[in-house]
């Protein structure tokens, strides 16, 4: 399998792993596609994850907000 980066360059996917990810009180199974090369990000979370959390991501404010059991959670980027 090959994945395409933001720059349009395709890279070979060497492995696909599923990890449990906890955000607030929600736990999801997320697929990660592993590639070789110089990383520009630690990891990239795509639309399926955001849609499943029913949240809103803001690249400008570098945070992610979602509601769970009537409580609004805000996850901010660690510097």
Structure description:
The protein is mainly beta and 79 residues long. The protein has one domain. 9% of the residues lie in helices and 54% in strands. The strands form two sheets. A three-stranded antiparallel β-sheet has the order 1-2-3. It has a three-stranded antiparallel β-sheet with strand order 4-5-6. The chain is globular and about 40 Å long. The chain starts with a strand and ends with a strand. The model has no long low-confidence stretch (mean pLDDT 77).
Secondary structure elements and their pairing?
Blueprint: E1 2-4, E2 10-23, E3 26-35, H1 47-53, E4 55-58, E5 63-68, E6 71-76
Antiparallel strand pairs: 1-2, 2-3, 4-5, 5-6
Question: Outline of this structure?
Answer:
This protein has one helix at residues 47-53, and strands at residues 2-4, 10-23, 26-35, 55-58, 63-68, 71-76. With 79 residues, the protein is mainly beta.
């Amino acid at each position: 399998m090959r994945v395409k980066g933001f720059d349009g360059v395709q890279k070979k996917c060497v492995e696909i792993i599923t990890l449990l990810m906890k955000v607030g009180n929600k736990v999801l199974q997320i697929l990660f596609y592993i590639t070789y090369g110089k990383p520009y990000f630690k990891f990239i979370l795509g639309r399926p994850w955001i849609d499943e959390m029913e949240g809103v991501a803001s690249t400008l404010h570098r945070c992610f907000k979602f509601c769970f059991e009537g409580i609004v959670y805000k996850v901010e980027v660690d510097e």
